[in-house]
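Consider the following input, taken from an annotated entry for Transposase (Favolaschia claudopus).
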Amino acid sequence: MVNPTGANGVDNGVFPPDEQLREILHEFQRRSLSLPIRLRYLEEHHGIKIGKTKLKELNNKFEVPSARKFKAIEQATAAIADIISRDINQGQGPDTVKKIASLCCSFVISSDLVRSTMKGLVGQGPSDMRRPGRRTGPKKRGALDAIGIFQEIHVDGHEKLNEKGLHMGAGIGIDVYGMRDHVGKVLWLVVVPNARLSDTVGHVFLDMVSAHQATSVQVTFDGGIELGWLAAFQTSLRCVKFSKLSFQQWPPCVAVKSTSNISIESTWSYDRKFNGRSLREILEEGRIHLIPGDLIHRHLFRWLWPQIVQIGLDEFVDYFNNQKTRKQPGRRLPSGVAPNVVFDTRHYQNMPQDYGLENVAVEVTQEAIDELRALIETPPEEAFRWVPDEFAALAFEVYIHLGSPTIEALSGWAIFNAMAPRIREQVETRGLYEAISV
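Applying the prediction step yields:
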């Protein structure tokens, strides 16, 4: 007998409007989620209960990218060529190129196509550069293990792009400070004028805590005078907030050798593979553009290039946290899954438990964060200030007058050369030398 209602006897939930559903499904693809996890997210977070067949139908309907149905070979070749052209040292592997294409170009290319195209474009050199064991005498390491997420956060400053690292003149450099959970997720990566100032690092730590409304049971670092406020804040939060892990077993702060702070130290190498080597070489091209000791050039570098580096860091964090790691059956920590999936307690409360982990985060209120921040003598706007406010306002005005060109590494020095003479002219016309010399 024909069912006059057209219903199949199963409540699939209420589907959102097509545009909203399209955005949801495309976000799943961008995050490299497997089909079972996509189905779980749809049910738990959006109230939609369907099977794999229906999900595939929806993916086809809303043109969700897929490597299997990708046919535009010319488009793929152009995208791959563009990505590897930005990697001057050719250190990116096929998996990295594939993920960047997915994040930046909105389509998925098969791994075989990426490898064959890269081989035709750049030959075997990159694979030789990435070959495991090409260096001798690696440090012998054991397997990482953890009880749960936010059990331990590793922090460190990266100074390869700072003044001493670039050797391009006084004030020409960019420090980076990073924080990564022991389980794998990069929690915070930010450019700072000086990663060796305790006030600045204190603000960076509180920014991370504010973003996650939580801190870890333990913070691990490799020492340094810049960690005064960070260590004090972490200890204070552990003292006033309950944690089932004891102070004796898991102290709030632990100092280790740099070579033992593995999680964050390895992050710098991942970032270097993603864009660091290329970025440093592009920065060093400034030797033919910068006039050493010139006030306008120094300020313009410090106004423009931290923005470019931060964009690169944000892209790396998005790539790294949404990339599925290589499946390792013997690994104690989760593998074969993206860090953002393991940490996704907002969409699905039990996600860490699915990978044998607990959520041991020490929850922190914004009120507590604000109280701690008030203890720092240097306000945030001063701690993160790269140039005098007068110069920042003038540089932004000139940038807008140029048509607001896209800020990216490859065009950075072209923008610099276009802005410098116009800023100099305005500084002289308005008599701003004294104001920007502060």
